[in-house]
Amino acid sequence: MSYTVEELSDRLEIQDLITAYSYAIDFHRFDDLDAIFTPDATLDFSATGGSAGPLPQMKEWLASVLVHFAGHQHLVATSQVTLDGDTATARTLCHNPMYLPERDGVQQLMFVGLWYHDVFARTADGWRIASRVQEKGYMHGLPTR
Q1: Is residue 35 a part of any domain in this protein?
Q2: Least C-beta-crowded within 10 Å: which of 89, 103, 124, 140?
Q3: What is the CATH number of the domain that holds 78?
Q4: Would you state the torsion angle of the CA atoms of residues 50, 79, 76, 125, taken in this order, to the nearest 10 degrees?
Q5: Whole-Å CA distances, 69 to 12, 34, 74, 131
Q6: pTM here?
């Protein structure tokens, strides 16, 4: 494949957004999401049991849910980016171990594997995520009912 300098720049900026999202979530810096998403962005995390809605609502939801975990990490990789002028799409693999506070000396750990399906828009402030939808790959270590 051969890319122009602008295409390489676009791809790096998009990759930086994907990484910035992971750090914002893992360090509970939810206001950082405002510089990652468009103001009218929608997020849909229902595939893994989460919520869906506009960015402000989802920031509140993330803050209310993630506080229950002692820690979590988003390992994102193998982003497949397709550029189309001032829009782009990407599919990115995510491996997300999450653990609860120890209980009776036992650490509860679960693993969530998913893909993010993103739509990006070039804005006056650079690329931003306009839509993020999760596709569940696996969930391991969760209690079953």
Answers
A1: yes
A2: 124
A3: 3.10.450.50
A4: -80
A5: 31, 23, 14, 25
A6: 0.92
